[in-house]
Design brief:
The chain has about 150 residues and is mainly beta. Helices cover about 0% and strands about 65% of the residues. It contains no helices and 10 strands. The protein is globular and about 65 Å long.
């Protein structure tokens, strides 16, 4: 936080099941910090830093920030190179950062209500998560919220 605190854009929690050979599986509950950043190629990214003191563990999950069909999408791939032992069970994050730019109050995430001007209220897909599994199965979960035109 001393080095990267100004780039903090979110906080959350992560839980995983850790399966080690010749040991009983155990649950890992970690704090999760999200930092604004860039990839090596200069693409906007969010770096998720998960850490826990017991057992002492820390790892980084990179999220690419992609603009797709008028929405902002965070894409994270947990590579096979992390090994067969950690299995992410759940994570929840809150992304929020307010700042001033050119004298105006801004937010890291900005949204509008995507409804025709003739309507006064509507619904928007607030968040969508797609889980892909090694066997090729995919599960998609969507969070829908209402919005009201002003």
């Amino acid at each position: 936080m001393q080095v990267c605190g100004d780039a903090l854009v979110g906080r959350g929690a992560l839980s995983a099941q850790v399966l080690l050979p010749n040991q009983d599986p155990f649950a890992l509950k970690a704090n999760f910090l999200l930092f604004n950043g860039k990839t090596k190629s200069g693409q906007t990214a969010i770096w998720g830093h998960a850490y826990t003191p017991n057992p002492p563990t820390a790892f980084v999950i990179p999220f690419k920030v992609v603009q797709e069909a008028g929405r902002t999408v965070l894409v994270a791939t947990i590579r096979r190179s992390v090994g067969p032992y950690p299995h992410v069970a759940t994570f929840q994050v809150q992304v929020s950062r307010r700042f001033k730019y050119q004298g105006k109050s801004r937010s890291y995430l900005a949204a509008n209500c995507p409804i025709p001007k003739s309507f006064t209220a509507g619904f928007l897909s607030f968040a969508r998560v797609t889980y892909g599994f090694a066997n090729g199965d995919r599960i998609e979960v969507e969070s829908v919220r209402s919005c009201r035109a002003r």
